[in-house]
Amino acid sequence: MIQQQPKPSSIDWLTIILYLVFVLGGLLCIYASVYKEDHPFIFDTSMNYGKQAIWIGISLFIGILILFVDEKFFYAFAYPIFGISIFLLLAVLIFGTTVKGSSSWIEIGGFRMQPAEFAKFGSALALAKFLSGFNVKFSEKKTKIIAGIICFLPMLIILFQNETGSALVFAAFIFVLYREGLSGWVLSIGFIVIILSILALLVPPLYIIIGISVLALLFTLVIRRNRQNLLAVAGVVLAMIAYVSIVEYAFENVLQAHQKSRINVLLGKEVDLKGAGYNVMQSKIAIGSGGLFGKGFLEGTQNKFRFVPEQSTDFIFCTIGEEYGFVGSVIFILLYMILLWRILYLSEKQRYKFNRIYGYSVASILFFHFLINIGMTLGLMPVIGIPLPFISYGGSSLLSFTILLFIFIRLDSNKVNELRGAFD
């Protein structure tokens, strides 16, 4: 289906320019984070930056190819693409290769791929097609259930691969569902769940139960005290107490030792500067040492002497903070926010619902990665090991994010052609 090729004027070049700025800037950050004086050539394929340069070339080729594909292809094959991504996720459970404790990789010869990365745009396409279907109303219970399955089935499978970080990314689709009509109460409940989860890990259960009971009592004083309302309050109280008990049990009996240690360090219950807290401590030192304007390119001592673990992948933001300082970090964050704003802006201008939903999915996934990755380098989020899109080292992540973004660019490019056609 290579037809109806978009005109150059119909392509959103601002988004593409921002993409190029990020991937090329990411290459320089990877180069700086693992630089060796005896391997100064940036295209040296024995080093991570040389391999990343190759992946940038492959990703650019795939991205350009996507721009020449008929946009109807993505709608027509949304479900097959989603089905293939689910099949690959299941295949990982049988044939997967374990890398750093995560059994989420498929290795063929010397090539490794992580299907969880590609499941993101597969789920985004499937969700967009389903919700944009004829006579599909989000207000119906059946629609919400099916949409939930599309969003969270990949998450469930990925959790079995011991890849918690990648699994949590699929929670970002909640923002898409909210845009399409999901009640604000769901987000409120989600916020309450997060608060209760944190309290369950910090405060003895008895104190939480007393606090919930007192709040419930105060609430009953300001509402109409009939049988129905009192039963509703009692039900909510029991549900909250049950959830607190579940969190405590899951923390003690489900999470692995390193996961519990990371959470305890984040919450301040443990100080383990040589173990679980080492990564975050070194990350903070690296970012803080950058000062206002940074130490300069290739002058970051924390990165140069390998004090920061995973410095080219999960903690790549440390390189930005140390070498370019507060000013450079702010500029990077502003550019990323411009990219997210641009995607949302273009999504709202789409003529077709499919395009809009997919665009919101792209923005939500990128935002989740951005928020969690930078948050964990600053010690504000638990270290769950997810890359910074377009910046972190990794072929699977770069290629999947490129496909995710360029599909939307292709869908958006048709908008201009449609408007022109209406006046011809």
In short:
The chain is mostly helical and 424 residues long. Helices cover 67% and strands 3% of the residues.
Commentary on this structure:
The chain is mainly alpha-helical and 424 residues long. It folds into 2 domains: 8-182 and 256-423, no CATH class; 193-253. The chain contains 17 helices and 3 strands. The protein has helices at 13-33, 48-67, 72-76, 78-95, 115-131, 141-159, 164-168, 173-179, 184-202, 205-220, 227-253, 257-266, 278-289, 301-304, 317-348, 353-377, 395-423; strands spanning 97-99, 102-108, 111-113. It has a 3-stranded antiparallel β-sheet, with helices on one face. It is globular, with a radius of gyration of 23 Å. The protein starts with 12 loop residues before the first helix and ends with a helix. Residues 417-424 have low confidence and may be disordered.
Primary descriptors:
globular; disordered C terminus; 424 residues; mainly alpha; 2 domains; three-stranded antiparallel sheet; single chain
Distance between the termini: 25 Å
SS strand fraction: under 5%
Segments where pLDDT lies below 50 for 5+ residues?
417-424
The major pleated sheet works out as: 3 strands, antiparallel
Helix content: 55-70%
Strand order of the largest sheet: 1-2-3
Number of strands: 3
Q: In DSSP terms, counting alpha (H) and pi (I) runs of 4 or more, how many helices?
A: 17
Broad structural category: mainly alpha
Oligomer: single chain
- The whole-number mean of residue pLDDT values reads 85
Order of helices and strands: HHHHEEEHHHHHHHHHHHHH
The best one-word shape is globular
Number of domains: 2
- The value of Rg in angstroms is 23 Å
